[in-house]
Amino acid sequence: MPFLHQRTSSLKAEGIPLTPLRRSSYQRKALKKAARRRQRSSSAYSARLSVFDLDDHDENGDEGFDELLGHLDEVDLEDLSDDEPHSRTYHAQEHDEDGNALDDDDEFVGRYLQRRDPYRTEVGTSTSISLPKRYSMASQSVLPTSVVDEAGSMSSSTNQSSLERWKTHLYQDVDGEQSTFPLVAWCFMTGFINSITTSAVFVWAAFQTGNTIQLSLALARLFDGTHNYTFQLSDRFALCSILSFLGGAFIGRVGDKMGAKTRAWLALGSFIQTLFTMVAAIAIWKSGEPSVAVERGEIAWGSALSFVCVGFMSASMGLQGIMGKRINTQFTTTVVLTTTWCELVAEPTLFHVRRLVRTRDHKAIAIFACFLGGFAGRAILQAIGSAKTLGIGTVLRLLITVSWVFMPAKKK
């Protein structure tokens, strides 16, 4: 709110007590109108007296006005000098005893000052008042010391407002329909990560349907008459993958507290996936085991570090899956393609090839991205090994993390 500027009449050095005049809404409007008129004509008076914004105090605006005039009570009129460099001169238009000399806008101001100084004897004159240096400001306005201190702290409040803007930005919900890049990248990572685990131990880090069936087959072998109670290595990897996947999905409950679609949670959750992938890369690098199994009966991994690798890869996929599901787009969970395939072939607009259809096209893109990720993962794996391939996956996940910060917000 802009400051209100008033012209004041002569003030007595004796400091006569001030009797506040309660103002009506009409009178307050007159004050604001007078202030606007004086702002447009800077030559009408030599300086302005800045009064607190009425809306910042009580309903009648008396507190700020009275406090400022209280500062002027402390001025010794006999010691004033216009020659001091810090002086501020104010000229007040006088009025007669009935208040008729003032225009409509100044009528209330005149009555207020007349009540404040009822012992005036001179009419039709103007008095010059110089304020002490502690009340002078470069903007030619007089404010209490508290307001001056507040103006001096504006630089720190600017930094605080920047933090508030960032907080607001991060806690806005993203528009899932316009977040195609990170969602497609997640689908790509599904194929990329699965290609590594399947090539080494023949289990899936993301497709838990296959792992669940594999465990059911392992249990069924107990009743085939051979009395083979061995818990095979590939079955142990399947169990490790399922439990880790569920653990990663459980972390997604944090997003329900922060806001499942907010930029803050999507970036944080993606960064956790990045850390999980990095730990998997370090674990398999330290194990020194080969990257590709020769045949299904002879898997490539078998050490404790390889279980750590499979566990963290599966946990990253579990967290990715629940985050994708919460966004609720055509990409669904980004880790399961069975539902996506069914919805795609049953899409009513499947053969409308002459125009773009978001519900159909996004499903097709999700399937293709997963396929491309599997192809790229296996090709890189054969060239540089599992550890370095997971290192590339870590970088890709970090890029996805950054991209969530800049996704468009959902329109309300």
Automatic annotation (TrEMBL):
Keyword Transmembrane helix listed: yes
Keyword Membrane: yes
Compositional bias of kind Acidic residues: 95-104
Pfam name, any one: DUF1275
InterPro entries, per database record: DUF1275, MFS_trans_sf
TM helices/strands, residue ranges: 183-207, 264-287, 299-319, 364-384, 390-407
Compositional bias segments (type: Basic and acidic residues): 83-94
Protein keywords: Membrane, Transmembrane, Transmembrane helix
UniProt region (Disordered), positions on chain: 81-104
PANTHER family: DUF1275 DOMAIN-CONTAINING PROTEIN
Name of the protein in question: DUF1275 domain protein
Annotated source species: Coniophora puteana (strain RWD-64-598)
